[in-house]
Amino acid sequence: MFTAKITITIRESILDPQGKAVEHSLKSLGFDEIEDTRIGKHIELKINTSSKEEAEKISKEACSKLLANPVMEDFKIEIEKDVKS
Amino acid sequence: MSKAKAGIVVFPGSNCDHDAYHVLKNVLSVDTKFLWHKESAVGDRNIIILPGGFSYGDYLRCGSIARFSPIMKDVIRFAGRGGIVIGICNGFQVLCETGLLPGALMRNENLKFICKTVTLKVENNKSIFTSKYMIKEEISLPVAHGEGNYFCSEEKLTALIGNNQILFTYKDNPNGSVSNIAGIQNEGRNVLGLMPHPERVSEKILGSDDGRRIFESVAESVI
Fold it and tell me: Which CATH number do you get for residue A22?
């Protein structure tokens, strides 16, 4: 069993209004060092398969088909092996 | 009597389905029926409407889950061979998710749900959706959306402009859409997506019938 930790964010080239609003709020709290803020989604999938490569392949396919919209979003996948299994 | 036969797709969470049904059936006397999302075919319908609402609670991304509803397979096939499809608000989002229309609808630039009447410009009246409007005519339609900020790549935008695919633009852009886009048609000119709600302003008794001519144009195009 593997866990895929997926992060989906709006593509770098596109304005992220949520990120900007939070960034302004952080600036007003005095976090002057923070230069950029982007907000995204975190999705975790439990994948019942025997190899890390297969888990990665399945996650990629799930992202391309449903979880992310390539017109406006990028995704990152991290695969972890479940310790229990 | 028009030969139009309209089908209004109902997803879990659709909430403008009855408005669209009422306008077509009772105002325009078009043969109209609902199509539950689990149905596998559009049957004898020759106009398909994807109504507004919050299909599947707008979970993940607006329209992303509805796009995989059983009926959508046949809607895609139907549109592929020239069938008329109109997506209003959430329906527009579903059409972008399916790829029947280019681009995507993102969170409004001001992060607010916008619910108000806006002025639109009819940019092209040589379409089956806008033939009853004058070119550059200004009409008032209500918008009610949190994700209506239309985005597409520059390349796609150039194509939209070049092919006269932009049918409606906002006079005062409320949501940050590129090139003030409020409604577009596909390259094949048989699929329309728009964020404003023409079905809510199709009878004078409700304050305005500025939206009615979209449905009239389409119903008349079916011969």
Answer: 3.30.1280.10
Q: Please spell the DSSP secondary structure of B31-71, one letter per residue.
A: EEEEEETT-S--TT-SEEEE--B-GGGG-SSTTTTGGGSHH
Query: In Å, how far is B154's CA from the nearest CA of chain A?
Result: 12
Number of domains in chain A: 1
pLDDT reported for residue A85:
53
Examine the residue annotation and report whether B199 is marked as an active-site residue of this protein: yes
Cβ–Cβ gap A67/B60 under 8 Å: yes
Summarised one tens digit per residue, pLDDT across range B196-222 is 999 999 999 999 999 999 999 999 999
8 Å CB contact of A18 and B111: yes
**Tell me, what's the ipTM?**
0.84
Domain boundaries, position A43: 2-81
Which domains does chain B carry? 5-221 (3.40.50.880)
**DSSP assignment, residue B19?**
H
A66/B96 touch (CB, cutoff 8 Å), yes or no: no
pTM beyond 0.80: the answer is yes
